[in-house]
Amino acid sequence: MANDSTASLDPSSSSMNCGNGNFSYSKNSTLQRVGSMKANTIIEEVIADRLIIEKFSTSSNTVRIADLGCSVGPNTYFAMQHIIGAIEKKCESKGLSPSQFPEFQVFFNDQTTNDFNTLFTCLPPEKKYFVAGVPGSFHGQLFPSSSMNIVYSSFSFHWLSQVPKEVQMKDSPSWNKGRIFYASASDEVVQAYAAQFAKDFDSILSARGKEIISGGIMFTFMLALQDGCHPSKHILSFFLDAAGSILMDMAHEGLITAAQVDSFNMPLYLGTPKEITGLIERNGWFSIERLKFLDHKPGVDEPIEPSKHTAHIRAVIQDFIGAHFGAEIIDELFDRLHTNIAAHRDLHLSLGKAGVLLFVALRRK
Ligand SMILES: C[S@@+](CC[C@H](N)C(=O)[O-])C[C@H]1O[C@@H](n2cnc3c(N)ncnc32)[C@H](O)[C@@H]1O
């Protein structure tokens, strides 16, 4: 059922496409997996150099790891197995035998609307860890104080807790009329998004600061923008601006209303290294161990079929679009987006320069 109101989208009520179908996130998230695997070596280095294994062996000998915004597998299974492997390698290097290795408990977190059934049904049978599901927003505290050793999060912290209210208010200078994203909008809209990200990222850091033990580690991967680049030059902005102008075309054709487009905005933000570093330093709970763009530019290093790119973006945003505009426009919108992406293949080459994936490793002070 289409939503004609101007009510703000609630990000907690939408998630990645569930199940195992053709348009599901589990079948359309290989680009994210390839991206996060580019940091495998750095993750091993940080665990080898900075994780203090004596800290967990003196308590219950259990290592508690959380994946925040895990969605549905398989990316999260690979990531958790890799972290556990890196810790076991470190234990080995300290002379521990396998019988002295710690036990592992993995907490899979996502919004309550996430498809936890598929996530748990598809868990790898050979997994070497105990499993728990933790529904709820990572913008608040999810675990007891000082209970976690390692927190991991990939492709999730660029999601905002809400669309900034002023971009949806008709009488505000920040009203984002006729667009669904801030990247090509006025400075007022960009500022409203930046302020929301600053608030949200600070909440994320403070909540993790309470949950992670001193010396514990947090790994995150975020879609981000190179310092000094205009946000409209980012590949995510290309997709969302294209989707926004297709929606406006559909409004002109009477398939939806312009008011529906004016009242819809994606709750995503692309921080820059400078912005993110400043927020981490101001927050104060963590020291920065690594902060760097990974060499991951989908469509730039190797050609990607427009249908694959379209399916990946569909798996991520379909639920949000459907909740606001109604499910009946989805196929038409993504058919048109596919045509648009296919017509602009060369553009991807220049878009990679604006940065794609920022990797950050933090250590709890
Ligand atoms: C693009 S998916 C990334 C999934 C997985 N980490 C990966 O790398 O493939 C982003 C995930 O973050 C989740 N997410 C967004 N905001 C969240 C929040 N406030 N709390 C918990 N999960 C959130 C979404 O529901 C979604 O499953």
UniProtKB/TrEMBL annotation:
This is Loganic acid O-methyltransferase-like. It comes from the Eukaryota. InterPro entries: MeTrfase_7, MeTrfase_capping, SAM-dependent_MTases_sf. GO terms for molecular function: metal ion binding; methyltransferase activity. GO terms for biological process: methylation. Gene3D superfamilies: Methyltransferase, alpha-helical capping domain (1.10.1200.270), Vaccinia Virus protein VP39 (3.40.50.150). It comes from Coffea arabica (Arabian coffee). SUPFAM superfamilies: S-adenosyl-L-methionine-dependent methyltransferases (SSF53335). Its cofactor is Mg(2+). Keywords: Magnesium, Metal-binding, Methyltransferase, Transferase. The keyword Methyltransferase applies. Pathway: Alkaloid biosynthesis. It holds the Pfam family Methyltransf_7. Belongs to the methyltransferase superfamily. Type-7 methyltransferase family. The gene is LOC113718491. Transmembrane segments: none annotated.
